[in-house]
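name: query_chain
kind: protein
chains: 1
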Amino acid sequence: MRLIVEILLMGLAVLIGAYVVPGVHVDGYGTAIIAAVLIALVNATIGFILRVLTFPVNFLTLGLVSFIITVLMILLVDNLMAGFSTSGFWSAAFLAIVIALIKAVFNAVAGTDKD
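structure:
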């Protein structure tokens, strides 16, 4: 049940991010949920591999490379989906920041209670 709520909240975060960030367009809430699932899957697979391979550089840049990898994963999902689009690297970077902030707010409201 928690996974379903996380997916729905991530979809809401993508939808709000698309509304706030200029240059990002999402066709609707269903598309935002699909985009959120794809972003999570791409980050968990390709993003994980890239983070492992770039760990020394990521360590030296204090996590900046990890953020850039996340932005690249958003751009990859942009290329995979028809209803989700970004106008470039900077709009994807701002979207990643907005999604991270919205998820932090959701986690603060919901709490970190693991059942």
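note: The chain has a mean pLDDT of 92.
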